[in-house]
Amino acid sequence: MFYLTEIKKIHYKKPKKGEHMQKIKLALINKDYCDYLRKFDNRVPYNHNNKKLRPFVGILFSVNELLYFAPLSSPKPKHSKMYDTIDFLRLNNGDLGAINYNNMLPVKSSNITIINTNDKNDINYSNLLKSQVYWLNRNYNLVITRAKALYFDYTNNNLPENIMKRCCNFKLLEEKCNEYNRVKVKIKL
User: Fold this and answer.
1) What secondary structure does DSSP assign to 108-171, as a single string?
2) Cβ within 8 Å of residue 50, ≥6 positions away
3) What is the pLDDT of residues 145-176, one digit of tens each?
4) What topology does CATH give the domain 19-188?
5) pTM, 2 dp
């Protein structure tokens, strides 16, 4: 759940004609898929701090020709006091939340659902999502470069130990992603 009462006033700005096309999309990740991955890596995050179900919103992008999901953290006052690092990026200085790259997960299209940002039932939530997508795409190079840098530094064992310890094991999870989706396809046949 996003804590909209903690957010500074956010206004969605519609892109000017021809300004840019959406490159990064928001998605929900399948709970069963996350539960499966967590059996092999305890750093795979739960959907919520108290482990109750809620939509697990994140961004989708490609790293090394694989689709990755990086969870978004809802906007919190503490984000304005935090610093951007190789595994953490504040959106609009934290006013729109943050990306937790250390928790990014490999996914297949069957493990996610693309979010419709035009939810008429919750205008505030819809405006937050639109603002996030707008900021993410305006800062596309920064967002993707940070994800790829963390991925390659992690897989080449080039990170300080404290950052290595808080990252998911990307290579192991890639194997488990393929395994999960192979089994799932066999079950459907």
Assistant:
1) -GGGEEE--S--SS-HHHHHHHHHHHHHHHHTHHHHHHHHHHHHHHHHTT-S-HHHHHHS--HH
2) none
3) 999 999 999 999 999 999 999 999 999 999 99
4) Thiol Ester Dehydrase; Chain A (3.10.129)
5) 0.80
